[in-house]
Amino acid sequence: MNAKPADFTSAVQGVISPLIPTLARAHRAMSQELLRDTGLSAGQELIVMRLFDSPPRSQAELTRWLGVEPPTTAKMLARMEKAGIVERVPSETDRRVTLVSLTAEGRAIYKRVQNIWGDLERVTVAGLTPAEVQQLERLVRHVLSNLQNGEVTPAPC
Q1: CB 31 within 8 A of CB 45
Q2: Is the pTM here over 0.85, yes or no?
Q3: Domains in the chain, CATH or no CATH each
Q4: Residue 96 and residue 131: Cα distance in Å, rounded?
Q5: Distances from the Cα of 54 to the Cαs of 12, 44, 57, 99, in angstroms?
Q6: Angle CA 127–133–136, to nearest 5
Q7: Which pLDDT score is estimated for 1?
């Protein structure tokens, strides 16, 4: 990875929020670097992992699962379909629903994606003890829950 993210730790002491997007960008950049030789872009590996060993999923379900806007999923799947990794077909029971499944090529790339994801995990938690990794996971899940379920209350003036 060539580009280094900005270091917010010296600019804003004791504040977590500026670190979160920096962490996300660094993680995505490392993911993209590791995926470079697969022909996948960062985020597409999640689709491969989600569809492997599962029945076809609706495009809407994948959008909700990824937590992105529908046009983002549509563009991602169009690129993957053009590359021969996924297939999109209308549902036989509801023509408004598009079902997505892996092709043989998509299934073949799964093992590489799984190995790359393992490499990304090792890089991400390098230097942490198993107990620290568990604590980090617990804390990240807690923060995520706060952001998904919390209410913002204005700070007193």
Answers
A1: yes
A2: no
A3: 19-125 (1.10.10.10)
A4: 47
A5: 44, 16, 8, 12
A6: 115
A7: 47
